[in-house]
Each structure stands twice: as structure tokens, then as C-alpha cells.
Amino acid sequence: YRVEKIGGYGIDKLVNVARKYVFTSGEKVCEVVVKRFKDPRNIKWAVLALATLADIRFEVLPLKRMANEYRMVLEFRKAGFNVPKIYAVDLDRVQLITEYIVGENVGKLIKEGKIEHLIKVGEEIGRLHSIGYVLGDAKPDNMIISEDRIYFTDLEQAKVNGDTVWDIVEFLNYSVAFSFDTENAWKIANLFSKGYLKFGRIEDLKEVKDTKYSLIFKPLIPPQVSKSIASGIDEAISEANA
Fold first, then answer.
1. What is the pLDDT of residues 111-152, one digit of tens each?
2. What CA–CA distance (Å, rounded) separates 76 from 155?
């Protein structure tokens, strides 16, 4: 077999280590992901929890994060959402062994300028919110497109009755982080919002423009890009109300 390190970009390396194991036997190939939940000290969740100064709470302890991901994967699957299958749980090493989803990473597609799929992404997140679930960590890198289906991965912060606005703010801001392309930011926000409104609440999109969560992303998002995001959302709302 061979091992490939996947995911864990930037600050995520402090939180988890994910590796893909590829097993071969003749022409048969089996690919699995082993995700190890690392020590909680100095991790992003503690920083974000302080930075938001909000009611939202992030789970920190590795064992609890793993247990929450296990539970949320089962609940998401039962509710009809696409998530990787769980093959095994390693309590001693605090690891999950899951199915490897062959497909395109949404974050990577956005960086390549391929954004037409964002209507479907928004639709799936809106549908998730409509039945009371949130992702908690809604970065585009945590979503995979496979055979025209959206897969949600990295569900350790997912929960019931959480903050839907945080999911939207995080997704949109990470989608345009460190970019000065206002036109692209408008398109991303507009496409996502159009999809979101199929199932999601219009009030949540309206709140995105004014939420204090946006302050967290100010170092990453130029003011003109933030305005373009708001404008793209407004246009989608106007079309929905027409």
C-alpha cells in the first residue's frame, strides 16, 4: 500500500492530520482516509471562539470532536446528505477511518475560477439549515463534488440548532480570501445565495451583511470585496422577491 497526506492546510495542521491509504491487490484498489484528531492546545477553535465574542461554541477536545463527527456523519446520512462512510473508529489513537471520496474539492474549483457549481452548494447548505443542522466549519475545502453530488466532510463542529449565519459568512469569506477580484466575489455570493434561497431563510442571508462575524475576516478580505459579496447577496434576494 502507499500513503498520501491530504488536507490540513495552514492552521488546520494544528488540529488534525488526514492521510489517504491506497491498498492494491492485483487490479483491485481500495482507498481510505485515516483522520487523526490532534491535541487541542493552540488550535483554531479556541482562537475563533475568542475572536467572535459570540454565543457560538467550538468543540476543542480531540475525543469529543471525533465523537461528534461520528454522530453527525450518521445523522447527515440518515437525513439524506452525502457524507463519507465510516469504516472504523480507533479510540486509542483518536482516529476515524473513512471512505475516500473521489471528486473535486470545492475550494480548489473556486481558486480555478470554476464557480458554476456554487448554486448546488448553496442549495445543499440551505437544505441542511432548513432541517436544523449547521456545519460549524463550512470552508469550501471541506466539500467535495463527486458525480454531480455535494459531499460534506470534516463534520467535527457540526451540530443541531447552531448558527446558520456563521456557516454562510465562513463559506463566502473563505471563498474569496486574499482576492481583490470584486467581480468574481459578486458572482460567488450571487450564485451561492440563489441556491441557498431554494431551502434556506432569506433572513439569514440578510444578516450576513451586518453580522459581527465579518470582523474576523477583515484581515483577509479587502473592503471592496466585502461590498461585492453584499451586493451579490442583495441581487439574489431581489430576484427571489420579484
1. 999 999 999 999 999 999 999 999 999 999 999 999 999 999
2. 10
Residue-wise pLDDT for 186-233, tens only, equals 999 999 999 999 999 999 999 998 777 777 788 889 999 999 999 999
DSSP-assigned letters across all residues of 180-197: --HHHHHHHHHHHHHHHT
Which residue do the cell numbers 488526514 mark? 18
- The DSSP code sequence of 62-131 is HHHHHHHHHHHHHHHHHTT-B-PPEEEEETTTTEEEEEPPPSEEHHHHHHTT--TTHHHHHHHHHHHHHT
DSSP string, 25-75: ETTEEEEEEEEEE---TT-HHHHHHHHH-SS-----SHHHHHHHHHHHHHH
Separation in Å, CA 75 to CA 82, 90, 145, 167, 229: 11, 20, 20, 18, 32
Tell me if 129 sits within 8 A of 208, measured CB to CB. no
Domains and CATH numbers, the chain: 2-99 (3.30.200.20), 104-241 (1.10.510.10)
Asked whether 188 and 231 are in contact (CB, 8 A), the reply is no
Q: Given the C-alpha cell 442583495, which residue does it identify?
A: 234
Q: Locate cell 463527527: which residue?
A: 69
Instruction: Give the pTM.
Output: 0.89
User: Other CB atoms closer than 10 Å to residue 176's CB: what's the count?
Assistant: 24
Tell me 219's DSSP state.
Answer: T
